[in-house]
Structures are given as structure tokens and as C-alpha cells.
Design goal:
Structural class: alpha/beta
Oligomer: single chain
Largest sheet: 9 strands, mixed
Number of strands: 23
CATH topology of the largest domain: Rossmann fold
Bound molecules: glutamine
Helix content: 25-40%
Number of helices: 20
């Protein structure tokens, strides 16, 4: 019988609820249980696809083409499984379904009410996700049933917000109906006052009270803080929040988020969870994970050689310095890393695979646009990535950066828009098509080397923007004797997409004649998916997003090869 674990946040957002849930999932999976993970986002958007990454952080895409929250990416990375649209709930999705059902007389003429119809729809969706494990669980075991043993549900936002009340209400209802099958975990923050140096428990106490007002008593408290919680803090929280001291779990800041499952286990978290459900562990196994953490800690011991130019760095250096030329990281005076989280994680996975410490730097495409001379700084990087993006801001800076990497033989990986800009750069500067551009930025341009598909044109005309891009997994045939073939080791792969524009086949022969290799093609629609340069140590552009499929224990082949090319190149 499926057990439900709800995870909610108190005190403030951004303290790692998603990673906490993913870590619980990892531990339970390692113990032999089937786990389903759900993210509930309280916003009214049907999905995350229409949101700006600066506003929302990265938009993650699943195999089935759902544009969702970056936490789904964390769940996939920690659980090492592909999730689906069933694992993602938003207020928009819930209301849309209820209203559609009402319009179809699905409620048989009765009055449809916010309570209980909205929480009931939420609960139906949770059960559906628990059952849909049948699609994703690799070793289906008929005897044990196909539904997940555990369904983990993250309620977005923090307790006390108006927005997530109906989701808390759903959790309360199910806990009342199935008290022995539901567990509630609260992730809260303990600030340390600079003036006194003391760790304060009061914000957590308040968060628990607020949760109590919603009719929910937490069973477990995950105490996030800069350093581990000590005994007096735990005792205090236990006393004021009515939670057994053994269920107050210390969750300090970590060197790498992948350490969290191990830290949770040091605090006996899985034992406590299984005890509450009267379950026994099937197999204790976090070995692979422990090995990974050991690697990370070992490579991190090496100090980065800051300021050393790539060309001068000694072979013995353990650091690979990667520059990301993008635009979604500046907000006021702060730098956001959330917008490119899957790219960052994919770089880390690949660097760790090669026993190297990744050093990732943010390079503003707009800055290069205005300061062309500064492009020279790119020589300091062992490799450069131009990630995905939308809109024309900074695109000329990206094109200039790509030109620099091409000419100076700096390993380059272009992701989606990064690939498109590499094609524009090649068309302009190698093929001599001076007015080459993407139709996204210059609709009437003379050489539309990146064009919009006819079906996309119609959607844009009708302003049907939400969920209508080329989304999710598509096949790609890889030509042999290419970098991509060497990386993947096979001739057919499936990768995830999120874009409207494509390399224009009308320019294909011209580009090829000038030396651009079409290394990957979608066989169904004859679309170019990968471009490469033969005369360069690593110059690869992909129309898809390989970063979505990289996992800590299974780095993505293209990222792995990218780092390998850096290690092989004479520059390091
Ligand atoms: N804006 C481009 C397109 O829609 C690229 C999108 C992306 O990088 N994800 O085709």
C-alpha cells in the first residue's frame, strides 16, 4: 500500500525543500522501495513554460515534453529516473481540470466547490502519480504491486501563504482519512545571529504553529542551517513543536547537494521514516552515492589556480574552468544561478567523472556585445558553453564569443540557442552570408539560416504560446566518425527539446560545403540536431538540451566528451 510523505517549507523559501525531498527519495530508493515524487507549485500558470527564467529559475523539460519546475530536475537526478507530467501539479492545472470536468457535466449537476473539489482533484492527481510508477520503474515486480511504495509530495512555497492553503488542505484531508499512511515533514530554517552568534529556533516554532493552524502536525522537522543543529537546539524544537527529538533532523549547508542523502542517513532519517510506517528496510545501499561524494571531496581539496590563464595552466591542475556565456543571471545586484541549473549540474557530473574540479564562471553576453575587446578574456577558460535562451538580448555577444572559440580552438558546446547562434556565426563568417540570422530575431532577414517550422508559424499567429514548442524527447541519428558518435557510442539517441526554431534545410548544403558537419539528424522530420566542426578539438552545437538527462552517477556523454577534450587539448 502506498505511503504518502508530504514536505512543506517554513520560515522562508529557497532553503532546499526540493533537494530535501529528492534526498529522502534517494535514500528510500536505495533501501529497495519504489518511490514517486511530485512537485506542487502554487502558481496559477498551467506549467512553467511561459515564465521568464529570471522570475522562475530554469524551466526543466521531461521526456514527455512537460515544461516544469527545476525541482523535477532534482528529483530526476537524485532518483535517476525519468518523470512525467503526472509528477507536476500547479494551481492552474488543478483548476483547469476541475473547470473542464464541470463543463462536461462530470460533477453530474451538483454545485462544484473550492473545498472539497479542489483538494480532491489534488489527491486524485497524487494517486495517479503513485500509480504511474508503472511507466518509469525499471524492475516491475508484479507481486509487490506496481504502484509506488512511497509517494513524496513537495508543497511549494512556505506555510502560512494564502497560495498553498488548498494543497495543505489536501494533505490534511488525506492524513485524517489514512492516518497511518501519511507522514508530514517540515523543512525550516534556523538563522544564526551575527551579533550574538546564536542559532535561533523561534522561526521554526512559528512555522510549526502556522502549520498547526492548517490542522497539520509535522512528524519530522528538517532543520536547515549554516552549521549542524546541536543538542540544545534540537531539545528546544522538540519541546515547543511536539516532535520527538530523534525526528529533528539536522540539515546543515553542504559542499555539494549530493551529500544530503548521506547526511540524512547519519541522522537516521530513513530508520525514523520506516519505523513510523512499521516497515523494514529491503536493502541498505548508498554505496555508489558515497563513492561519488568521496570523489567530489577529493577533487575539491585542490585549490583553484585563480587568475591563471588556461594556456599557462600546468597539466597537473585539477580544475576545469568553464565559462557560460548567457544572460539569465543578473537581477539587480544579485547573480542567479538557478536559470541554468541543469547545465551547471551536467558540467559538475562530467568533471567529477574525470576526477576534476569544475569551476564555473558567468559571462554576460551583453557585456561582450558592448566590450568587444573583452572577448580576449575567453582565453582564460578551458571550455565555453553557450546555453539555451529566448529573445534577442545579448545574441550578438554570443555570436562574437562563439566566433572567438571557433577561431582560437577553445572547446565549445552550444545548447539549443547556443547551437543556433553557432550556425549564424558560421554562415556569416565562413560562408560569407553576411546577413545570416535567426527568424526569431530578424523575421525578414536575407539569409534565414535558422527558421521557424510551418506548424509553429500558425501557433505564433494565433498567440498559442503555452506548451506548443517542439517539446520533449525526439530521436536523433548520429553519423559515424563524429565527436558525437564517439561520445554516445551508438548511432541513435533520444534527447529532449524545447524550441520553436530549427536549422533551415535550404542552407544545409552551403553550410556543409564550407565545412560544417551535420552530425545528428532527426530521421522523422529530417531536422538537423547536431552540428560539429572537424577542424576543431571540440566544437559541438546541439538543437536539444542534453543537460536535462545528465545524472550524477551517469554524466551525459556529450558533457563527458566536452571535458575529455579539454583534458586532451594542449591548452591545459
Ligand atoms: N529561442 C530558440 C528557439 O525557440 C532557442 C530556444 C532554447 O534555447 N531553448 O528555437
Amino acid at each position: 500500500m502506498t505511503k504518502y510523505i508530504f514536505v512543506a517549507g517554513g520560515v522562508m523559501s529557497g532553503i532546499g525543500k526540493g533537494v530535501a525531498l529528492a534526498s529522502i527519495g534517494r535514500i528510500l530508493k536505495s533501501k529497495g522501495f519504489k518511490v514517486a515524487a511530485i512537485k506542487i507549485d502554487p502558481y496559477v500558470n498551467v506549467d512553467a513554460g511561459t515564465m521568464n527564467p529570471i522570475e522562475h529559475g530554469e524551466i526543466f523539460v521531461t521526456n514527455d515534453g512537460t515544461e516544469c519546475d527545476q525541482d523535477i530536475g532534482n528529483y530526476e537526478r537524485f532518483l535517476d529516473e525519468n518523470l512525467t507530467t503526472d509528477n507536476y501539479i500547479t494551481t492552474g492545472r488543478v483548476y483547469q481540470a476541475v473547470i473542464n470536468r464541470e463543463r462536461n457535466l462530470g460533477y453530474k449537476g451538483r454545485c462544484v466547490e473550492v473545498v472539497p473539489d479542489i483538494p480532491n482533484e489534488v489527491l486524485d492527481r497524487i494517486d495517479k502519480a503513485a500509480l504511474s510508477r508503472v511507466n518509469t520503474f525499471q524492475n516491475q515486480d508484479k507481486k509487490n504491486g506496481l504502484a509506488a511504495d512511497f509517494v513524496l509530495i513537495e508543497i511549494g512555497g512556505t506555510v502560512g501563504e494564502y497560495q498553498n492553503m488548498l494543497f495543505l488542505e489536501a494533505a490534511r484531508i488525506i492524513k485524517t482519512k489514512k492516518p497511518k499512511k501519511v507522514l508530514f515533514a517540515l523543512v525550516g530554517y534556523l538563522p544564526i545571529l551575527e551579533t550574538t552568534g546564536e542559532m535561533k529556533t523561534k522561526p521554526i516554532q512559528h512555522a510549526v504553529r502556522t502549520l498547526n493552524e492548517a490542522g497539520i502536525q509535522p512528524d519530522i522537522i528538517l532543520g536547515r542551517s549554516r552549521i549542524p543543529l546541536d543538542e540544545p537546539r534540537k531539545r528546544k524544537i522538540s519541546c515547543f513543536c511536539n516532535v520527538d527529538i530523534k525526528d529533528i533532523i539536522s540539515a546543515p549547508d553542504v559542499e555539494t547537494i549530493y551529500e544530503i542523502p548521506i547526511n540524512f542517513e547519519k541522522e537516521n532519517l530513513s530508520k525514523r521514516i520506516l519505523r513510523k510506517f512499521n516497515l523494514k528496510s529491503k536493502k541498505p545501499d548508498l554505496q555508489d552515492w558515497q563513492k561519488l561524494i568521496k570523489t567530489v571531496k577529493t577533487v575539491n581539496l585542490v585549490k583553484s589556480q585563480q587568475g591563471t590563464r588556461g594556456t599557462q595552466r600546468k597539466q597537473t591542475s585539477n580544475v576545469v574552468k568553464i565559462g557560460i556565456v548567457g544572460k539569465y543571471f543578473e537581477t539587480g545586484k544579485f547573480v542567479l544561478k538557478d536559470s541554468y541549473i541543469s547545465v551547471i549540474e551536467a558540467i559538475k557530473h562530467a568533471a567529477w567523472f574525470h576526477k576534476r574540479k569544475p569551476e564555473i564562471c558567468w559571462l554576460s553576453a551583453e557585456y561582450y556585445e558592448k566590450n568587444l575587446k573583452k572577448l580576449r578574456e575567453l582565453k582564460e577558460y578551458d571550455g565555453v558553453i553557450v546555453p539555451g535562451g529566448f529573445g534577442s538580448r545579448g545574441k550578438e555577444g554570443k555570436i562574437k564569443a562563439i566566433e572567438f572559440c571557433r577561431k582560437r580552438k577553445i572547446p565549445f558546446l552550444g545548447l539549443c540557442l547556443g547551437m543556433q547562434m553557432a550556425v549564424v556565426e558560421f554562415a556569416r563568417n565562413v560562408c560569407g552570408l553576411k546577413e545570416a540570422d535567426s527568424v526569431e530575431f530578424f523575421p525578414g532577414c536575407k539569409h534565414p539560416v535558422i527558421d521557424v517550422m510551418p506548424e509553429q508559424k500558425a501557433l505564433l499567429r494565433e498567440k498559442k504560446y503555452g506548451g506548443t514548442m517542439r517539446l520533449g524527447a525526439y530521436n536523433c541519428k548520429i553519423s559515424d566518425k563524429t565527436i558525437s558518435f564517439r561520445a554516445y557510442g551508438c548511432s541513435e539517441v533520444s534527447e529532449r527539446h524545447r524550441h520553436r526554431y530549427e536549422l533551415n534545410n535550404e542552407f544545409r548544403s552551403d553550410l556543409e560545403a564550407n565545412g560544417l558537419t551535420m552530425a545528428g539528424i532527426n530521421p522523422e522530420k529530417n531536422l538537423v540536431e547536431i552540428i560539429e566542426l572537424k577542424t576543431h578539438p571540440f566544437f559541438v552545437g546541439v538543437q536539444f538540451h542534453p543537460e536535462y538527462k545528465s545524472r550524477p552517477l551517469r554524466p551525459h556523454p556529450l558533457f563527458r566528451e566536452f571535458i575529455k577534450s579539454i583534458l586532451n587539448s594542449k591548452r591545459i
